[in-house]
Amino acid sequence: MHQVRTEIHISASPEQVWKILCDFGAYPEWNPLVPRMRGAAVPGSRLSLPTAMWPGGPVVMPTRATVEEATPPRRLAWRVNMITRSVASSLHDFELSPDGAGGTHLLHRETITGAMAPMMWSVVRRFEPTFVQLNQALKKRAEASA
């Protein structure tokens, strides 16, 4: 298993952050990693999420995922399987927890598993700066609406 793990504090409630994360139609307005998203934040739902190969870049990789968990306002997770889950699988998730001061602690991860995980890791680990940018963009959007 290999994992990119980023965290940020957001001065908005988990409910406000959750609403933004699940508004897939608005992703082009703020999300540097996923410039478009189609689907619903419902377990078992299929997602179409062309993923930017670099922030704001014109090259996107067509990606299909399945929502694995959508527990408002706590956790949103989707999985992309390459061939099969045992060959290579990527779990992208957001965990929201109240921080006690009316804000939210966001834990944002990408976990790579399967027989080909070591080969995928060389590409996926390069996305950490983009995850940080996504977190900052989500923070900005949530705090502006708080």
Write a structural description.
The protein is α+β, with helices and mostly antiparallel strands and 146 residues long. The protein has one domain (2-145): Alpha-D-Glucose-1,6-Bisphosphate, Chain A, domain 4 (2-Layer Sandwich), CATH 3.30.530.20. Helices cover 27% and strands 36% of the residues. It is built from four helices and eight strands. The protein has helices at 14-22, 27-30, 117-124, 128-145; strands at 2-10, 46-48, 51-52, 60-61, 64-71, 75-82, 88-98, 104-113. The strands form two sheets. It has a six-stranded antiparallel β-sheet with strand order 1-8-7-6-5-2. A two-stranded antiparallel sheet has the order 3-4. Helix 1 (14-22) packs across helix 4 (128-145). The longest helix is centred in the last third of the chain and has 18 residues, at 128-145. The protein is globular. The chain starts with a strand and ends with a helix.
